[in-house]
Amino acid sequence: MTAQRVGAEPATQHPPKLDQSKTPYFQALLEYVDSGVLPFHTPGHMQGRGTELSFREFVGDNILAIDLTPMPGIDDLLQPTESIKEAQELAAEAYGADHTFFLVNGSTSGNQAMMMTALNPGEKVAVPRNSHKSMLGGLVMSGAYPIYMQPAVDQEMHMDNAVTPETVARTIAEHPDLKAIYLVSPTYYGVAADLESIVRITHDAGKMLLVDEAWGPHFKFHPALPISATEAGADLSINSTHKMLSAFSQGAMLHQIGDRVRLDRLKAVLKMFLSTSPNLPLLASLDVARMQMATQGAALLSQTIELAQETRHRLNSIEGVYSFGEEIQGRDGVFDLDPTKMTVRVTGLGYTGYEASEILRRRYNIQVELADLFNVVALFTIGTTREAADRLVNAFEEMAREDRPLDIYAPSGILTQRLKRGTYKMPAIPPMRMLPRDAFLADTEFVDFRKSAGRICAETISPYPPGIPVLAPGEEITPDLIDYLRLELKAGVRIQGPNDDTLRKIRVVK
Ligand SMILES: Cc1ncc(COP(=O)(O)O)c(C=O)c1O
Question: What is the per-residue pLDDT for 411?
Answer without folding.
Answer: 53
